[in-house]
Design brief:
alpha+beta; 5-stranded mixed β-sheet; 4-stranded antiparallel β-sheet; 33% helix; protease; Peptidase_S10; carboxypeptidase; serine-type carboxypeptidase activity; AB_hydrolase_fold
Length: 502
């Protein structure tokens, strides 16, 4: 009887364990839990935020589409109810080519689309990040973007500098001042057609190499106040180029790998090799020595080079090793794994991957809908050198960014913590070495878990001082509006004054 009792008890426990395991792996049970989570999330975001916005969708300012009285505007009209492969109406917009100056002989033209790394297309932002239509990696068709920035304002996407995307002409820019002058020339031609936009509040935004573009463009506009009939209020840059390569790539690289050891999954022999190089090159204790709040003076280079000294290129060493283990390793978001997702724009990770042709913006019907040149080959990142002799400008933290911060109402910098192209700790170093509004760097450290996203909770770290606000976004890679759109739009709300606090 005792033995039978023990057998019965064992059988009962085994059945219970099996049933529990089955519930955890049953697709219907998992789907039900996901539905419950979505319901809770939806219930939360329908509440109103501090500005009174209903957050069933991304908050809207109530801005209406503007009717343009100039007959010339009609040639740029885009019908949002009849756009290739988009099965919903995303509203009216305008697109096409305009010259960068009023000269009768001007052949250089920039492409724009208003919905409201150098040479990479702004249409990636429009179509996969913050526009009203988004076609994410791995999805079968485009979908409505509830986090579109067009819920906040009219948005102008510009393919610049000359040589980028659909733009026409031969690149001539030698530095960022040239780029800024050409873009302001384009804006002048744009406002001649779309006159109703004159005098409006204006915000500049961009990501990656736009860390160079945007501050220099803003500084040019502030330095030429009569050149443009727009009121520049502030700038927003994501995962931006701010300083030297050694600062934003090399110094933080090995620490980044240690932070995400389970993601990189390197063996211990290789980790020891990395640590040895890291120490030899002066990277290992750089943060603990020099990243202070407030800073104790200018931050030095770890060696002699602004890129890396001989034998100290740990960033490329890590990248090459990561690709051996994970062929789908994505420098733009390190969490990606095999297989590589299909991308309608042909660039779903570290490298171009054109699984179908033509690419979306190479389709003849898309070019016609956007009034682009049918003969221009569109590439997400152009093979043309938009700086024929290299960009001669220094990183913005050494030159124009302090002036832009001081003259703007607000400046916002956001950085994805899962970005390996430009590493967030490198941005911290660059900012702590910059002097603005009479002081060097932030005087107090970033507050952990201080960035609170409505309906979600803590979503990263943040610090705000002297009109500069810096966010670090968890779970986001290089393109914050693509990987964490709820965080991107909330930071943009703060820039534009729809939120009183960051």
């Amino acid at each position: 009887m005792v033995r039978l009792t023990h057998i019965f008890t064992f059988a009962t426990c085994a059945t219970s364990v099996f049933a529990s395991f089955a519930r955890r792996t049953d697709p219907q049970a998992i789907a039900a839990k996901r539905a419950e989570a979505i319901k809770r999330f939806s219930s939360t975001i329908k509440q109103r935020d501090e500005s009174g916005f209903l957050k069933e969708r991304a908050p809207s300012t109530g801005v209406k589409n503007i009717t343009f009285t100039n007959p010339a505007a009609s040639q740029f009209y885009v019908d949002g109810s009849n756009f290739p492969l988009v099965d919903f109406d995303f509203g009216p917009s305008w697109a096409g080519l305009l010259p960068i100056s009023g000269s009768a002989n001007e052949t250089r033209k920039l492409f724009f689309w208003t919905n409201g790394g150098p040479g990479c297309s702004s249409l990636e932002g429009a179509f996969q990040e913050n526009g009203p239509v988004t076609w994410p990696w791995g999805t079968a068709k485009p979908v409505q973007n509830e986090y579109s920035w067009t819920n906040l304002s009219s948005v102008l996407y510009v393919e610049q500098p000359v040589g980028t995307g659909y733009s026409l002409g031969t690149p001539t820019a030698q530095n960022e001042t040239d780029v800024a002058a050409q873009l302001v020339g384009f804006f002048q031609q744009f406002l001649n057609v779309f006159k109703e936009l004159k005098g409006k509040n204006f915000y500049l935004s961009g990501e990656s190499y736009a860390g160079m573009y945007v501050p220099y463009i803003a500084d040019y506009i502030y330095s030429h106040p009569s050149a443009l009939d727009l009121k520049l209020k502030g700038i927003w840059i994501a995962d931006p180029v701010l300083g030297w390569d050694v600062v934003q790539n090399q110094i933080p690289a090995v620490n980044f790998v240690h932070k995400y050891e389970n993601v990189f999954a390197f063996n211990q022999t290789f980790m020891k090799q990395l640590d040895k190089i890291n120490k030899k090159c002066g990277y290992d204790d750089y943060m603990s020595k020099y990243l202070k709040y407030p800073p104790r003076g200018k931050l030095p280079l770890p060696g002699k080079s602004v890129e890396y000294d001989e034998g100290c290129d740990v960033w490329d060493l890590i990248f090459e090793a990561a690709l051996l283990i994970n062929p789908a390793f994505n420098v733009y978001r390190i969490f990606d794994v095999y297989p590589i997702l299909w991308d309608v724009l042909g660039f779903p990770g570290s490298f171009p991957n054109e699984q179908t042709k033509p690419l979306y913006f190479e389709r003849a019907d898309v070019k016609a809908a956007l009034h682009a040149s049918p003969n221009k080959t569109w590439e997400e990142c152009t093979s043309i050198d938009v700086f024929p002799n290299g960009d001669k400008s220094l990183p913005p933290t050494f030159t124009v960014l302090p002036n832009v911060i001081e003259k703007s109402e607000r400046t916002v910098i956001v950085h994805g913590l899962a970005d390996y192209v430009l590493i967030a700790e490198g941005a911290r170093i660059a900012l702590q070495n910059m002097t603005w509004a009479g002081k060097q760097g932030f005087q107090s450290p970033l507050k952990t878990d201080s960035f609170i996203v409505d309906g979600i909770g803590a979503y990263g770290n943040m610090q705000s001082e002297r009109k500069l606000t810096y966010y670090e976004i968890v779970l986001s890679g290089h393109m914050v509006p693509q990987f964490a759109p709820w965080a991107g739009i909330q930071s943009m709300q703060y820039l534009m004054g729809f939120r009183s606090k960051p």
